[in-house]
Design brief:
Layout lengths: L12 E3 L6 E2 L1 H8 L7 E3 L5 E6 L4 E10 L6 E11 L6 E7 L3 E6 L4 E5 L9 E3 L4 E3 L11 E10 L2 E8 L4 E8 L8 E6 L6 E6 L5 E6 L4 E6 L12 E4 L4 E6 L5 E6 L4 E6 L7 E4 L2 E4 L3 H7 L10 E4 L5 E6 L2 E7 H4 L3
Parallel strand pairs: 1-24, 2-6, 6-10, 19-23
Antiparallel strand pairs: 3-4, 4-5, 5-6, 7-8, 8-9, 9-11, 12-13, 13-14, 14-15, 16-17, 17-18, 18-19, 20-21, 21-22, 22-24, 25-26, 26-27
């Protein structure tokens, strides 16, 4: 159990000041017309950033340059592409397979894998067909509402994906060979116990700890992948005090977990001194990431208005968040979550 003194997640500190991003005109225009967003994801090489156009049935993928050598990170968004497809239906969650394949979980569709065009495309729109689609939870059941997804393994074209099937209240596991387009994926229901609208999913870098944000219980459940998991498996840990947890991400060293609170204008920080996440713990800090006026514009009900998507860049230096009325904001981790 973490030894740090905990504070109430409702005790938000002053609103943090976002970085001034250097954004090309075409990318800025694309952001301004995005509308409702959901999740956000950096590519492994830190050179791309995917953002959901949930209501517009599209995805934006930005070319990003990040310089962390100065006191404050310098972020340049130099170009973007817009992806459209008949298979994009309320795109909600992302992850990357390598740097040029994008996995998209569609709330009213399936899990789709797209081969991305090369960067520096001058803000073009591409109509794409997925290279693979995943439509089943297991042999007998279909995926219904996949909302968030993460890559749990990627080796020699063999990929393992974990996905939140939101309103069916389960996490599914999918293993497929991308070198064999017609090969059937190995699909199964991985987790179900205590899940109540799982809304976000994240893996620690060592692939041991699986975090799932649980919308209806205002908690994040942590599962230990060192042992075999099945639908009856109980969580090893639980994080409490977030009103409506959504996007979440481990720090690269596995000692921190950042959680976006969709029901408040804040991000909550949980810590583990030894990078193990068993037991119950509260947030050690919460930081405002938007002003009250921006929050209230989206606060149409108690579960909306705050940040939805959240990601940490590969260096662990940069926190990115998104929501409908704040399409993209980035913060220096060391500046807003000082030790």
């Amino acid at each position: 159990m973490n030894s740090a003194t905990s504070v109430s997640a409702g005790e938000a500190h002053a609103t943090a000041r976002p970085l001034q991003l250097q954004v090309s005109r075409s990318a800025e225009e694309a952001l301004s017309r995005t509308g409702r967003t959901e999740d956000i994801r950096f590519s492994p090489d830190n050179r791309r950033l995917a953002l959901a156009g949930f209501a517009a049935d599209c995805c934006l993928v930005f070319d990003v340059s990040i310089d962390v050598s100065a006191a404050l990170p310098v972020v340049r968004i130099t170009d973007h592409i817009e992806i459209r497809s008949p298979q994009l239906r309320e795109p909600h969650g992302f992850d990357f397979i390598g740097n040029d394949r994008l996995v998209v979980a569609n709330r009213v569709g399936a899990i789709e894998i797209f081969q991305l065009p090369p960067g520096h495309c001058g803000g073009r729109t591409f109509d794409l067909q997925p290279v693979r689609s995943i439509r089943r939870a297991n042999l007998l059941r279909r995926l219904r509402n996949p909302g968030s997804v993460c890559v749990a393994g990627n080796s020699d074209g063999r990929v393992e994906l974990l996905a939140c099937d939101n309103y069916k209240r389960r996490v599914t596991r999918h293993v497929l060979d991308l070198n064999n387009r017609l090969g059937r994926a190995d699909n199964r229901i991985l987790l179900r116990n205590r899940l109540d609208i799982p809304d976000g999913i994240a893996l620690s870098d060592d692939r041991r700890w699986l975090a799932v944000s649980n919308h209806n219980t205002s908690s994040v459940l942590i599962f230990d992948r060192h042992g075999p998991l099945n639908p009856a498996s109980a969580p090893a840990g639980e994080l409490t005090g977030v009103m409506f947890p959504h996007g979440l991400r481990f720090s690269p060293d596995g000692r921190r977990l950042y959680v976006a609170d969709a029901g408040a204008p804040r991000v909550c920080l949980f810590t583990s001194d030894d990078a193990t996440w068993s037991g119950r713990r509260a947030a050690v800090r919460s930081v405002g990431v938007m002003d009250q006026e921006t929050f209230l514009r989206g606060h149409c009900n108690r579960a909306e208005g705050g940040p939805k998507g959240l990601d940490i860049d590969a260096s662990g230096s940069l926190l990115a968040v998104t929501c409908e009325h704040m399409p993209l904001a980035m913060f220096p981790v060391s500046g807003i979550f000082a030790a």
